[in-house]
């Protein structure tokens, strides 16, 4: 594309104008040194990109300037970040090297540019698992500098704003990656405006018809909405003016994406979405009066309009972990419509719009500024600790932490802890300390003993009961919801399984010796293949827990010794060694469904509407004529079934039958004596591999009968336990029901 001199001059004027605007709109106050740094970065970027053009035909330099403008005004970062944003594509796309940047701009700018270059090398993938792996690698650049991610979000926002000239398939690819990765991150950093824009733009490209339809309907209802806000504001303004408050009332429409989400989630039409907009009251205040004035405005609003008591959100007393502060109330406005009213001071409003940058503006010392950033960084690093093999699980857990709504609970000493909505006592225990989590025996909430699956609510006081003998069990994964708790439980279970696998290896060596079969790599490969497993550790673990017992090993020996058959089998096909045999992992083969808290095996059919496959999160629905139908938890019909027929929903999950523990009922008879029950329970709780589920004792004329339901890994553990119970003084008979 060749430009005339006149066009080049016009373009240069536009570039100079954009640069001046960048300095003018910067949220931070820029010193002379800052301006010099930004000028130098600008000139370097102009020189580096002078030959480049974007797909739309305009000079490439407009892109880094636009990203720098987002970083400067919308996110409000410092001069270092603005310079890094101007230079973010220089190392990747031009002849400049990282060393050049380091010499010209110093360590910090070079480190940020290096982090951004690393991320650019991660190509957007349609394959979710590769996308997840890229995401994990991207997050690891956080170790370099958190500003890397923030500038990357700004870069992605500008790319999304200027995607019109791209091919349709590319648009969908980039938009879906944005929804998958960048919107949750923007949310977590407290950049709500950017998160909303990213979501709306993603919807525009992934579901254009839906986006246009909602947008058109919103435009049609805008006039009505403006009049409504005017009526509402007029009623409140008179009272606020009487109190001589300086304030501003704004109406804010809900984003297209959030309306779409609501329509899907609640299975309703556009007209049935009742809170399509919120009213925001932003007031001027000194720091001392901030809280007092917020509640004063609250009382004025609720004098005029009846509030919905279940919809009060006080994020002033307990700010969100993103730093968000505000008072949210939902009131019954004129014409019988519910309206959300957000009450914020000017400071709170800036924090809501700029995230962490606004925090810094209101801090006096740089130390506190760093501390704030460190707290956020620690939260992200905590999620990164999860070094599980599966990148998709990692991302899902990470997003769980990013998007979760918060509750606030108290420790026994009265300290406030923030946890995601849906958190349980186990999540609370792990949030305090890993050791407390791993040793959890039980929990008291507001002084009462509760199960570990109990869902905590804001305001609960939680006290964790620990025991040196407690250890995580597989069931804990059903009760834990935070990424931290789940990753710690998984790694503890992994270590436990490896210990069992070591015992299993010793047992297998002995048993093979008895069968006169050599214990070597070839035999292990044959065994792994014979039992349809993946790794040698799978084999040793299942021998350790007893699901591969003497009988099964004898069957293997018999199939092996039938030389005539095996000779022909080998002729027909070469025995292939399982690919992952040496991997240090115990894998799952989800092959069986169990129902209810007791994990019973029942007859069922898989629902056609969502076709669940082994391993999917599922629930059972008891139909009238067809028994239990199994649906995926995210099945399109799930919400309707769960809300209309909650009493017919039954808990269900996939298990690996070759690893499964089983429950057994032990019957005891004997002579009643003082302290006998405590001796029996002590004997059971001393055995780490036994989980006691149910216990009942009856005494009649000095003779007692008891029933205990236990969950064990295998029959040999059960036999050992029964032998020990027989030795207790006063017990005559121990049998299995």
UniProtKB/TrEMBL annotation:
<dbReference type="InterPro" id="IPR012675">
    <property type="entry name" value="Beta-grasp_dom_sf"/>
</dbReference>
<dbReference type="Pfam" id="PF04607">
    <property type="entry name" value="RelA_SpoT"/>
</dbReference>
<dbReference type="InterPro" id="IPR002912">
    <property type="entry name" value="ACT_dom"/>
</dbReference>
<dbReference type="InterPro" id="IPR045600">
    <property type="entry name" value="RelA/SpoT_AH_RIS"/>
</dbReference>
<dbReference type="InterPro" id="IPR003607">
    <property type="entry name" value="HD/PDEase_dom"/>
</dbReference>
<dbReference type="Pfam" id="PF13328">
    <property type="entry name" value="HD_4"/>
</dbReference>
<keyword id="KW-0175">Coiled coil</keyword>
<dbReference type="InterPro" id="IPR012676">
    <property type="entry name" value="TGS-like"/>
</dbReference>
<dbReference type="InterPro" id="IPR004811">
    <property type="entry name" value="RelA/Spo_fam"/>
</dbReference>
<comment type="function">
    <text>In eubacteria ppGpp (guanosine 3'-diphosphate 5'-diphosphate) is a mediator of the stringent response that coordinates a variety of cellular activities in response to changes in nutritional abundance.</text>
</comment>
<dbReference type="InterPro" id="IPR033655">
    <property type="entry name" value="TGS_RelA/SpoT"/>
</dbReference>
<dbReference type="InterPro" id="IPR007685">
    <property type="entry name" value="RelA_SpoT"/>
</dbReference>
<comment type="similarity">
    <text>Belongs to the relA/spoT family.</text>
</comment>
<dbReference type="InterPro" id="IPR004095">
    <property type="entry name" value="TGS"/>
</dbReference>
<feature type="domain" description="TGS">
    <location>
        <begin position="405"/>
        <end position="466"/>
    </location>
</feature>
<dbReference type="Pfam" id="PF02824">
    <property type="entry name" value="TGS"/>
</dbReference>
<dbReference type="InterPro" id="IPR043519">
    <property type="entry name" value="NT_sf"/>
</dbReference>
<dbReference type="Pfam" id="PF19296">
    <property type="entry name" value="RelA_AH_RIS"/>
</dbReference>
<dbReference type="Pfam" id="PF13291">
    <property type="entry name" value="ACT_4"/>
</dbReference>
<feature type="coiled-coil region">
    <location>
        <begin position="366"/>
        <end position="397"/>
    </location>
</feature>
<protein>
    <submittedName>
        <fullName>RelA/SpoT family protein</fullName>
    </submittedName>
</protein>
């Amino acid at each position: 594309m060749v430009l005339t001199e006149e066009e080049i001059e016009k373009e240069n004027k536009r570039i100079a104008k954009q640069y001046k605007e960048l300095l003018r709109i910067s949220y931070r106050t820029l010193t002379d040194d800052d301006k010099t740094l930004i000028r130098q970065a600008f000139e370097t970027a102009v020189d580096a990109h002078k030959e480049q053009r974007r797909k739309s035909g305009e000079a490439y330099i407009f892109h880094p300037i636009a990203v720098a403008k987002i970083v400067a005004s919308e996110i409000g970062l410092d001069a270092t970040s603005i310079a890094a944003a101007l230079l973010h594509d220089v190392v990747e796309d031009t002849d400049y090297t990282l060393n050049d940047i380091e010499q010209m701009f110093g360590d910090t700018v070079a480190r940020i540019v290096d982090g951004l270059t690393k991320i650019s090398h991660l190509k957007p993938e349609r394959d979710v698992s590769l996308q997840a792996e890229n995401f994990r690698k991207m997050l690891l650049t956080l170790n370099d500098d958190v500003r890397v991610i923030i500038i990357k979000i700004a870069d992605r926002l500008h790319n999304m704003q200027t995607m019109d000239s791209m091919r349709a398939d590319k648009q969908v690819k980039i938009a879906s990656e944005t929804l998958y990765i960048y919107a949750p991150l923007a949310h977590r950093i407290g950049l709500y405006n950017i998160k909303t824009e990213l979501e709306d733009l993603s919807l525009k490209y992934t579901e254009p018809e839906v986006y246009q339809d909602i947008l058109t309907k919103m435009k049609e209802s805008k006039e009505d909405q403006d009049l409504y806000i005017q009526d509402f504001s007029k009623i409140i303004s008179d009272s606020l003016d009487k109190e001589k408050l300086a304030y501003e009332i704004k109406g804010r429409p809900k984003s297209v994406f959030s309306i779409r989400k609501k329509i899907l989630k609640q299975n309703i039409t556009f007209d049935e979405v009742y809170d399509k907009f919120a009213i925001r009251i932003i007031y001027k205040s000194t720091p001392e009066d901030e809280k007092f004035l917020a509640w004063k405005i609250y009382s004025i609003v609720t004098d005029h309009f009846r509030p919905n008591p279940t919809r009060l959100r006080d994020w002033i007393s307990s700010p969100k972990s993103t730093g968000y502060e505000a008072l949210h109330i939902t009131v019954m406005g004129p014409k019988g419509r519910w309206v959300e009213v957000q009450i914020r001071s000017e400071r709170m409003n800036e924090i809501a719009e700029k995230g962490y940058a606004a925090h810094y503006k209101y801090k006096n010392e740089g130390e506190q500024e760093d501390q704030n950033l460190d707290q956020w960084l620690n939260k992200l690093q905590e999620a990164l600790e999860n070094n599980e093999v599966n990148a998709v699980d990692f991302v899902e857990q990470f997003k769980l932490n990013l998007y979760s709504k918060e509750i606030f609970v108290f420790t026994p000493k009265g300290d406030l802890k923030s946890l995601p909505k849906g958190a349980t006592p186990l999540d609370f225990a792990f949030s305090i300390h890993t050791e407390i989590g791993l040793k959890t025996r039980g929990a008291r909430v507001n002084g009462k003993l509760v199960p570990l699956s109990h869902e905590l609510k804001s305001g609960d006081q939680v006290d964790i009961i620990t025991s040196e003998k407690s250890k995580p069990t597989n069931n804990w994964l059903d009760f834990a919801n935070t990424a931290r708790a789940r990753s710690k439980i998984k790694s503890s279970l992994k270590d436990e399984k490896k210990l069992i696998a070591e015992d299993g290896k010793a047992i297998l060596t002995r048993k093979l010796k008895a069968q006169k079969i050599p214990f070597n790599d070839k035999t292990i490969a044959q065994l792994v293949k014979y039992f349809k497993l993946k790794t040698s550790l799978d084999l040793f673990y299942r021998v350790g827990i007893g699901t591969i017992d003497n009988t099964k090993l004898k069957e293997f020996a018999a199939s092996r010794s039938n030389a005539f058959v095996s000779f022909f089998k080998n002729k027909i096909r070469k025995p292939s060694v399982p690919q992952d045999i040496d991997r240090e992992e115990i894998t799952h083969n989800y092959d069986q469904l169990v129902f209810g808290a007791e994990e019973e095996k029942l007859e069922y059919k898989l629902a056609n509407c969502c076709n669940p496959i082994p391993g999917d999160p599922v629930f059972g629905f008891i139909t009238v004529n067809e028994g239990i139908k199994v649906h995926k938890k995210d099945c399109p019909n799930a919400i309707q079934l769960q809300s209309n027929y909650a009493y017919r929903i039954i808990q269900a999950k996939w298990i690996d039958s070759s690893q499964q523990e089983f429950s057994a009922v032990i019957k005891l008879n004997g002579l009643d004596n003082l302290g006998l029950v405590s001796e029996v329970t002590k004997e059971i709780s001393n055995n780490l591999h036994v989980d006691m589920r149910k216990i009942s004792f009856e005494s009649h004329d000095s003779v007692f009968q008891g029933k205990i339901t236990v969950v064990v890994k295998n029959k040999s553990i059960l036999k050992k336990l029964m032998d020990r119970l027989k030795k207790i003084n006063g017990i005559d008979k121990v049998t299995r029901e």
